Amino acid sequence: MPLHRTPSRRSRLRLRLASLPFSSRLALLALSSSILLLLFCLNMAAEDMASRTKTVAGHNLDPTPWHPFPHVRQQLRPLTLFRCHVLSCPRRPPTLSLSPPKPRAKKRRSCPAFFRSIHRDLEPWRQTRISAATVAEAGKRASMRVVILEGRRLFVDLYYACVQSRAMFTIWGLLQLLRRYPGLIPDVDIMFDCMDRPSVNRSEFSTGNGGLGGSHLPPPPLFRYCTTKDHLDIPFPDWSFWGWPEINIRPWNEEFPSIKLGSQTLNWMEKEKTAYWKGNPYVQSPIREALLGCNDTEKWGAQIMRQDWVEESKSGFNKSSLSSQCNHRYKIYAEGYAWSVSLKYILACGSLSLIIDPQYEDFFTRGLVPRENYWPISPDKLCQSIKVAVDWGNRYPSQVEAMGKKGQALMEKLDMNGVYDYMYHLLVEYSKLQDFKPVAPPSAEEVCSESLLCLADNKQREFLERTFESPSSSLPCTLPPPDIN
């Protein structure tokens, strides 16, 4: 008997379509074409939106014109855009409350003395206050604008790309501050530049406190990672406290204990009696380039090592562990293009830090006292100055060891509790000077921990997830009053 095959589903569909009247087939064709056209238009619209969307990962952003750097603009895929920007953040973030300490709870701790610098940093606006127009003026020098509302929502308006993942990790730090102290952060509107050198020159503006300035206008309030005595930029904790994935430096709450443990591998008398520096000298830093000429342990008592991060990344960073660089009695700090994040890792070693006449200061370096927790090095006759410090230290090892331990103790006090408390007090004091009610600009995007993690690559996400914060069981430390001097 001949075998009869059952018609396939596609064949049955063709037969049904063939049996339809011509007018019905024409209508079905028109409907299908309309659907395809709609899908095409939706895809084009999604592609266009993705091509214009700016993210904390640097998509569709150009480098800052005042500090160009190699950067490739990348387009965000529409599906990623939808997932990260539409689905990640809840429309109304859950409200978390922090109960005040009970009456019998331990006394609220005092902040470290260097927190007093917050008052000094904000002094230029004490009389004039901070207006919306002043903030807008700061936007001309900023890479991004950050608005915090309701103590739990964060909006970012991105202007320019930042080097590597600086913007992402800085915003992450702010998001974790909101998680740590939910509902306690006041509404603020700040401009932030995540590049190195400060730009608000003190001599160009009236400081409102009797100071001589070139303009009758108040200075633009601009946050960044460092400042100088000649600038009014407001220093803020740098991104590396949450990690620096590009060079495999872990978050500070992991890196400091590791460095301290590594510093105990040798006792003081077993450590090398020379000064040590390892870094990149080719960052437009005359001091670092001059330091290369001091690489002579016999003549100058110094070992100077070049750090090639490209080669280190190829070898898996096997030779750049910070905890293995604490075997010398002296560690040298030399500024780079501006300030350098390396200072906290150098101090963490417990060796005596030989700091070469710093021009820049970040938020915690105000806690440094020469010949108490570090040794100042003159840039004039640089090698000779290092040699004098090393020779003196080797004659008085117990005094040098004590100074090195004080530098390490300063860093131990600066745990992540201290970092978040500094951020908290800086934003609270800043908010008191605002004479307007902050609102999120129409061009800003709301960012939450989930949306930021969605945009991060695998290495970045690994670092970020290790620094998730939970609501604190205690209130921030108590800010010391302004220095009357």
Sum up the structure in keywords.
6-stranded mixed sheet; alpha/beta; 5-stranded parallel sheet; 2 domains; globular; 485 residues; 15 helices; Rossmann fold; 36% helix
Polypeptide structure, described:
This protein is an alpha/beta fold and 485 residues long. It has two domains: 78-89 and 113-238 and 416-465, no CATH class; 250-361 and 365-413, Glycogen Phosphorylase B (Rossmann fold, 3-Layer(aba) Sandwich). The protein contains 15 helices and eleven strands. It has helices at residues 9-19, 22-52, 78-87, 117-122, 132-138, 166-180, 252-263, 286-291, 309-314, 342-348, 382-395, 397-413, 416-433, 449-455, 458-465, and strands at residues 144-149, 153-158, 188-192, 222-224, 234-235, 272-279, 302-306, 328-333, 352-356, 375-377, 445-447. The chain is globular and about 105 Å long.
Question: What does the main sheet amount to?
Answer: 6 strands, mixed
Total helical segments: 15
Shape estimate: globular
What structural category do the secondary elements indicate? alpha/beta
- Ranges with pLDDT <50 over ≥5 residues? 94-104
> What would the average pLDDT be, to the nearest integer?
87
Strand-residue fraction? 5-15%
Helix percent band: 25-40%
Radius of gyration: 28 Å
Q: Supply the number of structural domains.
A: 2
> How are the strands ordered across the major sheet?
5-4-3-1-2-11
- End-to-end Cα distance, whole Å, is 111 Å
Q: Could you give the order of the helices and strands?
A: HHHHHEEHEEEHEHEHEHEEHHHEHH
Number of strands: 11
